[in-house]
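Take our chain:
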Amino acid sequence: MREIVAVIVGIEKYSRSGIDISSPFANAMTAARHLLGMGAKAKNIHLLVNRTSSSDGYRGEVDIERLRAEGVTVLEEPTKAAILNELASVPAGIPPDSRLFLYWCGHGYAGAGDRILLCSDYDAARCDDRTFNATRRFRRLGSHPEYTCFTEQIFLVDVCARYSDVIDPDQLSVSGQRHARQVAAFATREGGYSRGGFSDVALDWLGRQKTWPDTGIVLKTLLPELDRAKLKPFTLDADDEATTIAGRRFGGASARSYPPHVLEMQALLASANLSSQAIRNSYEATLADLRLPVEGDPDLVQMLAELAEMFDAEDLTDISDAFLQFVTRLSFDPEGAPLKRWLEELPAPLAYRRNSVRERLAAEADEKLLIVEIDGNERADPSLLSAFACTRAGKWLNVPPFQRQLADWDELSAAVNSALDSMVQKGVQISEIQFVVRPFLFHHEFHKIPRPNEGELGEHYVVLLRDKYRAYQDPPPQAVLAYKQAMAKCSPDKIKLVQIPSEATKLPQMFSGDQGFCYAGFICGPDPHAETGRRDILRRVVLRGVGYAYWLQKEPACGGDWTIALKKYLLDALAGVGQLKDLPSWIRNGRQECNELAVHGALLWDDPDFKPFLKLSSPSRTST
């Protein structure tokens, strides 16, 4: 009797920070149900899954227990060892001339011409061998003597194929005579990014197969449905005579074929007077807008190829919205005139999409900020205030700067209000205020400056602190750039919280681990004499490159250990924002709601790429 055996993998949670996803678990469950409906015995289905909570709280316990009760093998730790063990066990007791089905949904990449799938225990930072080389496994399952019982094999793989220079260690032997008729469909061609939809179409197709489909018609019937959904899969069609490969080369040396606009943009950027940091910033900002972490350290052509493949379009020559966004961001740069011309010369069918992207980013770039630079003496008293208005894009507004000598905190409050009032009179709508100060002023509660008849400053505006010395450093120190890049590689909910110790002697221990969002385990409040040592600790933290930090300036009345409450608040904040840049607005909203952990907190937010200050720099400003 010809039996159907299935190995089904759905991975949502990974050991590596910042790459968890949703839907693979539900997709794997659907695949298992379809195989049962096709006549597969429950004992021959091997389901390896893990999961995260969906937005509606669904975790699938009832469904997965039903499959277990029916006899399906369910493993909820889809590690590399578990997956290999299941694959090694599937031939046991299976009669000749049987069928093998493999479905995998999760993360993957393309490297050295192979398709590499990531197991749940993959973590490049600690161990890079938790991968599954789909290219070689495909060949091995079709040629190794252990698997001769499977004469027909179908593979459906829903992962990305972004390029990576990671050397995959899963170099198993693939020698032997092919004994099986095999077909495979991968969600994207080499270099592509899976934008969703492949599993929806492929599993819907699978669900309509009441019996095992003949391998000769699998691709003939599946590909038209994928094409109608504007999906461009990579396929393999192999038997004992030959292998047919659709898409870019799969296996062996990688022959990368880029769309024309990628090569055109590569040449344009190579000749433009744009800094490599500006290009990198636009790339990172585009990925952040798409809720994607930065992977590795791609070169220019890899960035362009990745962005170009983030599309659901009819052919590989179309231009993705991600690519348009990247170029549009660069066109706002003072040296971005060649990019503006390129955008203007796009064909008419792309004009609407180009304009939509441009209008959205222009509105974001045109957001108005007030930069308040404060000098002070070593007694931590403010002495001079200078206020300037600029846009989010760093363009100074045609508004005269506001300056005032200060004698005390009351005069500082009055000066800030006067600066804001002058902006209002000139029709400038401010949404964010950045106080540029030295660390010996970090104890001041700038966000609590009262607005006449309107409550406190932090209730109406996003209020941030910036280190004055660092604001004028060009280029930024390597430690600052390394910290920013480390934060960009994680989605906000995966960013580690790092507590700043109350003793300077413990700072080396703090910096011995992974970088993350820092919060103080002590109060640094209005009393300048009592807080001298703590302000010095914050100064040292800033010198080590930390750009994002939070500390309380008054002990909250929450009872118990307030550091635990603060950590939970920050974890909730990071989990609640789509992008890290939204965290300051989250804090402002907390102040509006009178959350004491927001009301009594100060937020350091040093973005090394936002430096309108340099246009007004002078020797006195840049001195230490």
